[in-house]
């Protein structure tokens, strides 16, 4: 093989550099934002369902949370209720209820890694006979890291599946008719994550 004035090692390294530059260039062009939605009917009244959505303690019973370094602050439910974590595996982050209106709407925000990744979400509830229709919408921005563009590209499908699974757990829990148990804010909560 004739490589001209360049050695085989130079050609290989040059080719790898061009390929890496191409991957990064495509990553810069890909969108870094994503959206996901899921809807389900829960065989429980809106009061029961809402009680699982307007507080971090309610969420901890039907969604996955970090295993360690969890700290609660703010009110126990409603606007300002916050759960922050510093977990060895998942890093630092926070979850905050930003709005809880009547028995029909809950909005929240999640920040991870000091705001490098930001997610906003909402639940809309409507009574349907003896049950409740729950619509969950989530959107996020993964920041300007060119490699995150690839993640955002697949995020919508993956996150939609996660929302559907979590809504399934919520529906099972709420259909049991039990109101969620609330804990008073403490410096550190030691309970494990729901899996």
Give me a quick take on this structure.
By secondary structure, this protein is α+β, with helices and mostly antiparallel strands.
Relevant terms:
195 residues, Alpha-D-Glucose-1,6-Bisphosphate, Chain A, domain 4, 4 helices, 31% helix
Write structural notes for this entry:
This protein has helices spanning 8-29, 46-51, 56-60, 148-175; strands spanning 33-42, 70-73, 82-87, 91-101, 105-112, 117-128, 131-141. It is elongated and about 80 Å long. The chain has four helices and seven strands. The protein has one domain: 2-Layer Sandwich (Alpha-D-Glucose-1,6-Bisphosphate, Chain A, domain 4), CATH 3.30.530. The termini are far apart. With 195 residues, the chain is α+β, with helices and mostly antiparallel strands. Helix content is 31%, strand content 32%. Strands 1-7-6-5-4-3-2 form a seven-stranded antiparallel sheet.
- Main beta sheet: strand number and arrangement? 7 strands, antiparallel
| Strand segment count | 7
The run of helices and strands is HEHHEEEEEEH
Number of helices: 4
How many domains, in number, for the residues?
Answer: 1
Q: Helicity, in percent?
A: 25-40%
Overall mean pLDDT stands at 79
Share in β-strands: 25-35%
Cα shape: elongated
Please, what is the CATH homologous superfamily?
A: START domain
